[in-house]
Amino acid sequence: MHNENDGGLGQQQRRKLRVKISELIATGFLSGRAPVAPGTVGSIAACLLWLLLKISGATFATLCIVTGCIILAGWWATEHYVARNNTDKQSDPSEVVIDEWAGMWITLLGVQELGVIEITLAFMLFRLFDISKPWIVGKCDRMHGTKGIMLDDIAAGFIALLCLMVGQSLF
Predict the structure, then answer these.
(1) Is residue 2 part of a domain?
(2) Strands, DSSP E only, in the chain?
(3) How many domains would you assign to the chain?
(4) Residue 59 forms part of a structural domain
(5) What's the pTM?
(6) What is the residue-level pLDDT of the chain in tens, covering all 171 positions?
(7) Dihedral sign, CA of 132, 136, 140, 143?
(8) Distance, CA of 119 to chain centre
(9) Distance CA 47, CA 51 (A)
(10) Which of 47, 31, 48 is nearest to 39 (CA)?
(11) Distance CA 69, CA 41 (A)
(12) Of 85, 91, 160, 162, which cross-links 107 as Cys (Cβ 3.0–4.6 Å)?
C-alpha cells in the first residue's frame, strides 16, 4: 500500500532510485566507468558538455549556475556513493569523477573564446594541478571522505582558473 505523499513509489523503490541517481552523478554520467584513465575521461566528458552548452548560447551566468549545481549534486552523490560502495572512507574511488567535472567546469569559467587552444589549455592546466596536487590541492586531498574527494578538484579548478586568467591577461 502506498502513502498518498510518496508519489506512487514505495520506500524501497525510492531508495533504489536514489542509489541509481547518485551513482549516475558520482560517476560523471558513467564517464568514470572508463577502463583506462577515468579521471581524464571524466574531465573530457565535462569539457564536452560545457562546450555543448556554450555553443548552444549559454551565458556566463548560466554556466556559473550549472557549475554550482554540479558541485552541490556532486557532493550529495559522492557522499551517498562512497557510503554505499567504499569500505575505505579515506580513499577516492577512481570511478567517482564528478569531482573532476566540478574542477573542470570551474576552470572552464575562464575560457573567453571558444578556441581549441583555450579549451585545451584549460583542460591541461586542470589536469596538471589535479594530478600533481600542489599546495592547497594536496592538503584538500588528504581530507577524509567526501570533503577530500571533492575539495581537491575544486581547489585544482580554481588554481587552473587563476593561471588561465593570468595567462590571458599577459597574452
Answers:
(1) no
(2) none
(3) 1
(4) yes
(5) 0.92
(6) 445 555 677 999 999 999 999 999 999 999 999 999 999 999 999 999 999 999 999 999 999 999 999 999 999 999 999 999 865 666 889 999 999 999 999 999 999 888 899 999 999 999 999 999 999 999 999 998 999 999 999 999 999 999 999 999 998
(7) positive
(8) 17
(9) 6
(10) 31
(11) 20
(12) 160
Quick one: cell of 38?
577515468
Q: How many CB atoms neighbour CB 170 within 10 A?
A: 6
Q: What is the pLDDT of residue 113?
A: 85
Q: Which three cell numbers stand for residue 157?
A: 579548478
Contact call for residues 31 and 42 (beta carbons, < 8 A): yes
Mention every residue, 6+ apart, whose C-beta is less than 8 A from residue 46: 28, 31, 100, 101, 104, 105, 108
Q: What share of the chain is helix, strand, coil (3-state, %, to 5)?
A: 75, 0, 25
Angle between helices 98-108 and 38-55 (to 10 degrees): 40
Structural domain that includes position 76: 10-170
Give the cell for residue 58.
549559454
